[in-house]
């Protein structure tokens, strides 16, 4: 643009401002707006350079300035800082004669600043939000005058309104995005899923949207909307949302309403982001074959937002631990996705998923759940893991097993589902009694990883338990007798037995030891006291009486936690007595006799079919105790520090 002469009329000045404002109105990015405003200030004042400064707390900054790199300074810095902090309009003919001028920038840029004009910009509340700074007038005398000041003041009025509007628009947009994400995360957090789930689903959705052919703006819109896919879960009762197992028909029907509930919450919004979110919430459980819910919409009648989010959500859900299941491995997930091509999922999207798999897996790694990042050494030293917590095996429920350390477990009801190949390191299984839900995985640990094992697996148990295992289980009829079979390329037997004695302390390593005590069950049985350093946890296994347990706890103050079974509801006292198991009534009648308050109670061995009733009764009858109901893969902390 040619130089502006001093004879430029008011109409011409307004026309120029109008031209620049028209250009600004088409822009969204703050930096782009500042750049155009700087061009306007430069043109109006016939200056060599113009910088638009913006106040940010105790600093002023400009990301775009003619011939300068981005800069951020304290708010009171130099001539610009003086103008902003005092509200003073400044014209200087020779900046090197002004003590406020900092020549360092000239030295760095090899640019010679001579004349300067600075005027502050005010918002509608007369608060200073920044300043225009023009440098080196290009006229013959090289200095700015009052007419330049008037022109720049006129420009600053428009500029200030533009910047305020842009900031407000950006703030509204960012707030809207934040609300959408936060609400989505709330929906997930109520169901004990992590905020990273919605981050991953959002990122997967954008990858698939771009691959499908959406432009960047629409793909970004879907990314921002997808966190709301399960917002309807806010209206689902906790007892259903966090049930550790399969829903019955009534519970499933209630759970499935979350899609319609989420849609109803936001469907009337006029904002594009929330309109997109309402589609996602409504349709992400529809299936390509028409067998989904809530409307059984089929094929491409399902909105592309719903089809994309459905795939992203299912992929992430399968690969994540949930209250009702353990994460699937990738091989199993990919197999299912391929099987559901054209059934659950849009076949085109399945193909695009695998074509972009590397990018999708990179997102999963970036936003992996926090619990996946905790190394074993970071866990509390006084912890053991529950491999199986329930009283019978069902989908989503594992039977009794406690991982004491890398080489030792108590019982073997659910080893493989949690440890998988890591079970090859197990050397000793301390068995409480001979019932199947406590021994079943002994067979599969030996069978599945036989070729990988290098050490004998030893069963340590009461003499009667070992006799039962030999006669009725590892007898070459029910299962091979592994005590007669050598390990691969070894003279060691795959399996051995060692009888234990009640009350004898057995050392496992320098810090760990274990001791058995008698329990009351339909077959000879024992519980165990596991000690690490000076802290102990008592595990009853199956029992009907707690008299022995109360006596032990009262006499051994180093026992900081107890794990007690509770198999049947109190409405089944006859069955509990005949099968020698506890109910909530019997359990709390027993432990009410304990005179210690410095002890943590964990409850396990609940029969899944009675779980809701038993949980309600535990809350009702618990008295002075605050019990924790164990789930598969929970951890028991028995440190004294936890209780002090």
Automatic annotation (TrEMBL):
Which residue ranges does the record assign to the HD domain? 194-318
Q: Where is the HD-GYP domain?
A: 172-369
| Family matches, as SUPFAM superfamilies | GAF domain-like (SSF55781), HD-domain/PDEase-like (SSF109604), Metallo-hydrolase/oxidoreductase (SSF56281)
**For this chain's UniProt record, which GO biological process terms are given?**
cAMP catabolic process
Gene Ontology MF term list: 3',5'-cyclic-AMP phosphodiesterase activity
PROSITE patterns the UniProt entry points to: HD (PS51831), HD_GYP (PS51832)
Q: Which SMART domains match?
A: GAF, HDc
Family annotation (InterPro entries): Cyclic_di-GMP/3'3'-cGAMP_PDE, GAF, GAF-like_dom_sf, HD/PDEase_dom, HD_domain, HD_GYP_dom, Pdiesterase2, RibonucZ/Hydroxyglut_hydro
- Spell out the Pfam families in the cross-references: GAF, HD_5, PDEase_II
| Top-level taxon of the source organism | Bacteria
What's this protein's name? Diguanylate cyclase
